[in-house]
From TrEMBL:
Database matches in Gene3D superfamilies: Histidine kinase-like ATPase, C-terminal domain
Domain called Histidine kinase/HSP90-like ATPase: residue spans: 175-257
Keyword Isomerase in record: no
Signal transduction histidine kinase subgroup 3 dimerisation and phosphoacceptor domain sequence ranges: 66-130
Principal EC category: transferase
Keyword hit for Nucleotide-binding: yes
EC number: 2.7.13.3
Annotated protein name in UniProt: histidine kinase
Highest taxon listed in the record's lineage: Bacteria
Organism lineage: Bacteria, Pseudomonadati, Bacteroidota, Chitinophagia, Chitinophagales
SUPFAM superfamilies for this protein: ATPase domain of HSP90 chaperone/DNA topoisomerase II/histidine kinase (SSF55874)
Length: 266
């Protein structure tokens, strides 16, 4: 009788162990399947994000190519026509020497044509900054800051502590950083009524950092940036470089935007 009882107890233990093993196996397979599904989902999301970045990069590169074409055509056609008009005015002036009305007319005409030539040249340059093809990114940024400082009636201070790292970027990434700085300066000129702009380019933990500040009107405390076209352009360019930005307004009177971009992904 005792032997039968022991056999039954052993059988119960074995059955319970079998059930435990089955449950444990089921849970293990379920978790492994869930992990596999999560991994596949993450992989698909990563592929989709990368695909979106590639599409965005293609769109931006197409836009830049179109801007380059328009800038070149503007310089070659409109610029050439204006130079031709300038030559015509000079010839007209030489053909009527000493005539007061002619002198006044040609003087005004040459001034207006020269102004138009300068504007066309500036627009062409902004559409297609060929400077990046012959200069480094930091040199182009410094020249942009110098141009604004000289012509826009405010002080622009550029500090470069990034060294050779910034100049090692490919043309697409360099152009993106240049365009971001353009957008920030344009926003200041349009809305901030600032007297000073500070631009800092440096490195932090293998990340390229662009720190931009102005002393204009700024934002109300606690308010975020207005998501206008300029900010959307900045976000699009940062997205393809895996960059991020933060913004702050000090006392409601200043704006500061810090942008960081991982160099190993540029």
């Amino acid at each position: 009788m005792q032997g039968i009882t022991d056999n039954i107890s052993l059988l119960v233990v074995m059955v319970m162990m079998g059930i435990f093993i089955l449950v444990a196996s089921f849970i293990f397979l379920l978790l492994r399947n869930q992990n596999r599904l999560v991994a596949e989902k993450n992989k698909r999301q990563a592929i989709e994000i990368e695909h979106q970045k590639q599409l965005l990069r293609s769109v931006i590169e197409s836009q830049e190519a179109e801007r380059t074409r328009i800038g070149r055509d503007l310089h070659d056609s409109v610029g050439a026509a204006l130079y031709g008009l300038r030559v015509t005015v000079d010839r007209f002036e030489k053909e009527h020497p000493g005539h007061p009305f002619v002198q006044a007319f040609t003087g005004t005409g040459k001034s207006l044509v020269d102004d138009c030539i300068g504007r066309v040249r500036d627009i062409s340059h902004n559409l297609s900054p060929g400077i990046l093809a012959i200069q480094t990114l930091t040199e182009a940024m410094e020249e942009l800051c110098y141009t604004i400082d000289s012509n826009a009636g405010l002080n622009v201070y550029f500090t470069n502590e990034a060294g050779a790292a910034a100049d090692s970027l490919d043309l697409t990434s360099s152009l993106a950083v240049y365009r971001i700085l353009e957008e920030l300066i344009t926003n200041t000129l349009k809305h901030a009524a600032a007297a000073n702009i500070h631009v800092y380019l440096g490195m932090e933990e293998n990340k390229l950092v662009l720190d931009y500040r102005d002393d204009g009107k700024g934002l109300p405390v606690g308010a975020g940036l207005n998501r206008g076209r300029g900010l959307q352009n900045i976000e699009s360019r940062l997205q393809i470089m895996n960059g991020v930005y933060t913004s702050a307004s000090t006392g409601g009177y200043h704006i500061r935007i810090s942008i960081s971009m991982p160099l190993n992904q540029l």
